[in-house]
Amino acid sequence: MRTQNATAYRFLTPYLLIFAIFWIWPIISSFLISFQATRTVPWRFAPTFNWGRLIGDPAFYNALKNTLLILVIQVPVMISLAIVMAVLLNSPLLKARGLYRFAFFAPVVVGEVAYSAVFRLMFSLDFGIINKLLNSVGLTKIDWFSNVTPAMALIMIAVTWRWAGYNAIIILAGLQSIPEDVYEAATLDRVSRVKQFFYITLPLLKPVIVFCAVLSIIGTMQLFTEPFLITERGGPGGGTETLGLLLYRQGFRSLNFGYASAVAYTMAGLAIAITLVQLWLTREPK
Amino acid sequence: MAAVTLTNVVKRFGVFEVVHGANIDIADGEFVVFVGPSGCGKSTLLRMIAGLEDISGGDIAIGGKVMNDVEAADRGIAMVFQSYALYPHMTVEQNLSFGLRMNGNPKADTERRVKRAAEILRIDELMQRRPKQLSGGQRQRVAIGRAIVREPQVFLFDEPLSNLDAELRVQMRVEISRLHKELGVTMIYVTHDQTEAMTLADRIVVLKAGNVEQIGAPLDLYDDPANRFVAGFIGSPKMNFLKANVVETSNSAAIIELVNHGGARLRKPLSNAFPAVGAEVVLGVRPEHFFEAGEGDCDIPVKADVAEHLGSVSYVYANAGPEELIVEREASRQRASGDHFTVSIKAERSLLFDKAGARIR
After folding, report:
1. What is the pLDDT of residue A286?
2. What per-residue confidence (pLDDT) applies to B272?
3. Which of A13, A18, A150, B127 is at a distance of 20 to 30 A from A190, taking alpha carbons?
4. Where in the cell is it found (chain B) (predicted)?
5. Partners of residue B325 on adjacent β-strands
6. Interchain pair A186, B99: CB under 8 A
7. CA–CA min distance A283, chain B (Å)
8. How far is CA A61 from CA A58, A67, A98, A153, B238, in A?
């Protein structure tokens, strides 16, 4: 058995080496970097330099507030929408189901730059279709890019558009794994469709919904593309800057790797903490 | 309690007809088993009675009222599913009471019904468990309990024991039989297992390819099957079928020659139909109806291939030309593999079928 294991590990060595160099080491290294002052030459060990700055940095709190705001509003809306979409997709009355499934999933495979450009055009103040539609129903135009609230709303709309279908497909798989005869038993018990949804479907979908929520929380904590490309680097005036964007700005524009690493670890820590709280809140009773 | 009447019931899926005009009368309080091979339409028929499938033609009446357009929940039936269909996220107690709670049934009445069902099925101690914490037999009890709390006029069982192991199946069979006696309600039970059908039913409905082949009491079907299909389906091990030709007929009998057994001849008394000389027929003999050499009307030499010893009896799978016969032997007359021996057929203990499978009496 030991010889067999040794042979297996010899074959695994190339992978393990690559994994250690490009995966494990950067994780350890970035953690160590977060305890160094990296804007001096050479870098010096200063345990409280970056973490101390983080605690008192208004830019960090602004990014944290924006990220959490998106998390608290967008994720529940998107998951609810995804559940509705999944239920509609699962309906036996729906024709051309494959087409809808593709349409819902398509945003995920569209290039980020392309979709961001399209969103910028659609929400443009003067010639965007959204403002034209608002105008046509008698509402005033909205300057989506110059005011913080519309800009945040735009980010949430874009992220929801992009990921709701993806989550809907995962939830659809969960829906299809619920045996039909459970619903038949409920029908014989004179339980209405609406009650079946709330008392059978939703509880049985809970593990899948929690899975989608965890993925979405992690994704939102890392949110970068939309505020970078659609609202132009977290504009207006940092109003849509997220932790991901702050990390980028510190690490790759100010080349302050130590502080960027501290932000990165804060993001990861928050994602883990929120996920753990959520898993605890939605745990199965013993 | 209620009688169930099926009149010319037809079921089509698109252009494909799966039930071809079934006519079945089930008396109030009767235990009727629908039995047949996979795809014969027995579950479809049950689901039509339940209201889970639309009826393409004919009428289904429960308690004298035609139910074709009545919602499943309003038919006064309860169904036990093959997969139990328990709500996995609910405790046993919640599973039992779910339907009643959702319909605003008074709490005291719900508790009374749940308690009664739990007592009948002896699941009182399992009430706070979830389905995944139960064994197969316990889940089945809960599924039956959920049906009991509805206090239905008719119980429908869709292959309820097929997911259980052999021992548990026997145990649950007895429980269901006891339950029928205790509740005294009409029960319709679907199975592909003829042993279940024989042991449980007051009457059996044998189905094949969407047609009702025969309806009757278990022993009537066993002793007096209407055709070769019923003869072969009812009884375990199966009836043996021996190819034969009619060589002579008279006003009261036909003399047949067993094709694969060296021209052995048997005089088979008949009362109604007389096949033509030369007609191909099939002689049916149950394994326990092979007698010792010389005891019957026609002897056949065979060679034991495999012997299954079950204690009180053994089943010998014997080769006789191209036909394999299953012969039941008493323990004292066991045969070992490779033994040559002779079996004897009695005319009155055999059945005659024409080439198409219809019984010749």
Report:
1. 65
2. 77
3. B127
4. Cell inner membrane
5. B318
6. yes
7. 12
8. 5, 10, 44, 19, 81
CA dihedral A269, A271, A274, A276 (to 10 degrees): -80
Where chain A has pLDDT below 70, the residues are 1, 285-286
B164 confidence band (pLDDT: 50, 70, 90)? confident
Residue A6 region by backbone torsions, left for phi larger than 0, else alpha for psi between -120 and 50, else beta? alpha
Minimum Cα–Cα distance from B86: chain A residue: A182
- pLDDT digit string (tens) for B166-191? 888 888 899 899 999 988 999 999 99
pLDDT of residue B322: 84
What is the distance in angstroms between the Cα of A103 and the nearest Cα belonging to chain B? 30
Residue carrying structure tokens 């010096």: A44
The radius of gyration of chain B from alpha carbons, rounded to an integer in Å, stands at 24
- When pLDDT is averaged across residues B290-307 and rounded to a whole number, the result is 90
Q: What is the CATH number of domain A53-281?
A: 1.10.3720.10
| The predicted structure's pLDDT at residue A46 | 87
Sequence-separated (6 or more) residues with CB below 8 Å from residue B112 = none
Task: List, for residues A268-278, the tens digit of each pLDDT value.
Answer: 999 999 889 98
pLDDT at A248: 94
Whether A169 and A212 have beta carbons less than 8 Å apart is answered as no
The H or E element that residue B186 is part of is strand B186-191
Residues 6+ apart with CB under 8 A from A34: A50, A51, A258, A259, A261, A262, A264, A265
Give the position of tokens 């002793």.
B223
Tell me the domain boundaries of chain A. Answer: 53-281
* ipTM metric: 0.84
Q: Residue B6: name the closest of B69, B41, B57, B52 by CA.
A: B57
CB A154 within 8 A of CB A120: no
User: Domains in chain B, please, with CATH?
Assistant: 29-54+67-233 (3.40.50.300), 240-360 (2.40.50)
> Looking at beta carbons, which residues of chain B come within 8 Å of A191?
98-99, 102-103
Using an 8 Å CB-CB cutoff, list chain A residues near B51.
188
Based on its alpha-carbon atoms, the radius of gyration of chain A, rounded to whole angstroms, reads: 23
> What is the full DSSP assignment across B289-357?
GEEETTSSSEEEEEEEEEEEE-SSEEEEEEEETTEEEEEEEEGGG---TT-EEEEEE-GGGEEEEETTS
Over residues B274-287, the pLDDT tens digits come to 788 889 999 999 99
Q: Which residues in B lie closer than 8 A to residue A181 (C-beta atoms)?
A: 81-83, 85
